[in-house]
Design brief:
- It is a single chain.
- By secondary structure, this protein is α/β, with parallel strands linked by helices.
- The protein has a single domain, classed as Alkaline Phosphatase, subunit A, CATH 3.40.720.
- The protein is about 35% helix and about 15% strand.
- It contains twelve helices and 14 strands.
- A hairpin with a 5-residue loop joins strand 13 and strand 14.
- Helix 7 runs antiparallel to helix 8, helix 9 crosses helix 10 and helix 10 packs parallel to helix 11.
- It starts with 10 loop residues before the first helix and ends in an 11-residue tail after the last strand.
Length: about 425
Amino acid sequence: MVVFWQPSMDRRHFLKHLAGLSAFALPGGAFLQTLRAASGQLRKEHKSLIILWMTGGPPTIDLWDLKPESPNGGEFKPIKTSADGIQICEHLPLCAQQMKHLSIIRSLSTSEGDHQRGRVLMHTARRPDPAVQFPSLGSVVSNQLTPEELALPGFISVNGATEGPGFLGMNYAAFTVQDPSRPPENLKPPDIIGTDFLQSERVRRRQRLFYEIEDHFIAQHRGDAAQAHSDVYKKAFNLVASPLGKVFNISSEKKVVLENYGANSFGRGCLLARRLVEAGVPVIEVDLGGWDLHQRIFPTLKNERLPVLDQGMSALVRDLVDRGLWSSTVLLWMGEFGRTPRINPNAGRDHWPRCWSVVIGGGTLKGGRAFGSTDTEGTDIKGDERAGVGDLFATVYHALGIDPALKIRDAQGRPLAIAEGKPIAALA
């Protein structure tokens, strides 16, 4: 049976490491009830966030903000898109067709040029802090939007693990799908002779036995962590007994659909993301790695990264639009940081958080826009249209119908805004 938990996290291990620190692992029950009450209506509206995460730090100057007149511009040329006045890389022709649905923020400025620190910042909108584990964007959205009756996890990470739920607790951690081409292991009910009803009933009998033990343990006042352990297993039982588990089997899609997304893990992940949105999952993150391009950047982009990105991302946008899901789904493309305008001696680009681009669309956002700009060399932001990661997160929350001013409490009970910024008015 599949369980939405960390590897090797058995009962004893979990309670040893979390129950003794339950105040840090999970917020208080009264606080969670307040959050549930505030987001009850949103949960009924079935909204979703898809994060396309580019591990390694993509060179956005070569993708979304080209500088053809500058020595920093490199080898690629810009092409027109379906959005008036917006040009992107010639090696993203399929994405160019979908740009009327998307917008580019070309003036994002962040503070972390280290991979891990940048990863934490771009997932939590906060710089790493050893004293506080902040929740990721996906965990906050999952907390706000996941219906209690949903058998599937509220946050699913495809092609690799993502950042954790921090002080929101393990109920809002991402369930990781390592290979989108195959359903997760142990998802099927036990093999027995009989009908689907008999299989489901056997799972339910096991569940009742499990809860006799769990309820006795919780009654001993072991803290919020023990309840979280029980809640996670409840979702696992519900999924095994539910037909929703079939959502992970993308082989049931038509051949033409599989071909549209591409025969690679990113394309398959994007297809799985669309299926999970249809099934009611609020947050899906799909990872595409290989962007740490300190050398040979242009042949690697042209022959390896960009064809995969172009096919998978464009198919996802087109599919969501065609199926009437675009207005209820927000898509966010980003990585840890951008890469240097100046090309290094190894024909690559290094880390550059000062000014770079992200792509966003869907929900209540305006499509076909470009917010902000960089100078002709790509070394700094022009004008006053500068955006921080807090503004980016506020824009995402606003597009999903979540109040960016909402406050959540950390382990010490301190109220913290989910976004230290304001929605970008030109896109909201």
